[in-house]
Structures are given as structure tokens and as C-alpha cells.
Design goal:
The chain is mainly alpha-helical. The chain has four helices and no strands. The chain is elongated.
Length: 170
């Protein structure tokens, strides 16, 4: 069925036109909020693993051979990249405000006798700003994690190249 603006659409409205979809919107918003919050927690875990792996890789990079100038450069480059990955991952842990939420005390004090729908709307509005803040935080953490992983990958290439060159020429 193709609808254009000239066609009239017949909708069977419920008899109670005052009924709203507040509960549906509330549940939907809650699921989005929880999903993004879980994703941010997962990013924190991955950033922590990246930091741990960087420390381990730094330890191995320090033991790389440096018997000729090229291997010295690769060793230094590998160490610098691993340190950069650590700094990037640590920067991903910086905190940012993610929105304002109504506290349980505030809801009790100010809204105890208000209709449930009004309270749900207030909570939805708070979650809405929180979702925006969490999405921004999620994007920032993704960015730092991606750069840290790229630095570690490049350090791994330098690490491997150093070992190969030392095996051939060392």
C-alpha cells in the first residue's frame, strides 16, 4: 500500500484517547540505556586488557636484540608504540559526565503523589540526556581503543621484523 499525502488514512483510535504510550517508551528507553551502559563497561574491560597486554609487550620489547642500527631503531620504535598504546588506553578511562538523573530521594520527595505516568516521563527525560552522554563516552572509548590496538599492531610488526632481521643478519 503506497501512501501519499493526498490519501486519507483511516485509523481505529482507541476509545480512550487520553491513553498514552509512556510505559512503552519507558521500557524502550530503559533497554537502550542498559545496552549502551553494558557496551561502555565492555569497552572498559577491553581497555584494561589492552593496558595489560601493553605492559607485557613492553617487557618483551625491552629484551629485543639491538646489535645493529636497524634493530636499535625497531626496538625503540616498538617500545614507543607500546607506550603510546598504554597512554591511549589509559586516556580511554578518563571520566566524563553522562547526564543528569533524578535521584530516588528526589523522586520520592517531589513526586510521591504525582501520577505514575508523570514520574515515568521525568525518568525518561533523564535517561534521554544520559543516553546522549553515554553514546558520546562510548564513541570516545571506541576511538581510544582503536588507536591503541593500531599502535600495538604496529609495535608487533616492528617486534617481529626485529627478530627476523636479527635471525638473518645477527
Amino acid at each position: 500500500m503506497n501512501l501519499d499525502s493526498s490519501e486519507e488514512v483511516n485509523i481505529d483510535w482507541p476509545e480512550d484517547r487520553n491513553k498514552t504510550n509512556t510505559e512503552l517508551i519507558y521500557n524502550y528507553t530503559e533497554k537502550i540505556f542498559d545496552s549502551i551502559r553494558i557496551n561502555v563497561a565492555s569497552l572498559n574491560t577491553r581497555l584494561g586488557v589492552t593496558i595489560g597486554f601493553s605492559g607485557l609487550m613492553l617487557r618483551f620489547s625491552l629484551d629485543l636484540p639491538d646489535s645493529f642500527p636497524t634493530s636499535q631503531v625497531l626496538k625503540i620504535l616498538s617500545c614507543l608504540l607500546v607506550c603510546s598504546a598504554s597512554v591511549l588506553a589509559l586516556t580511554g578511562f578518563l571520566t566524563k559526565p553522562t547526564g543528569e538523573y533524578a535521584s530516588a530521594k528526589q523522586l520520592l520527595d517531589e513526586n510521591y503523589y504525582r501520577p505514575e505516568e508523570m514520574i515515568r516521563l521525568q525518568i525518561i527525560r533523564g535517561w534521554n540526556t544520559g543516553i546522549q552522554g553515554l553514546m558520546n563516552l562510548q564513541q570516545q572509548k571506541n576511538l581510544y581503543l582503536n588507536y591503541a590496538v593500531k599502535a600495538l599492531a604496529t609495535a608487533s610488526l616492528c617486534f617481529g621484523l626485529n627478530i627476523v632481521l636479527d635471525s638473518i643478519y645477527g
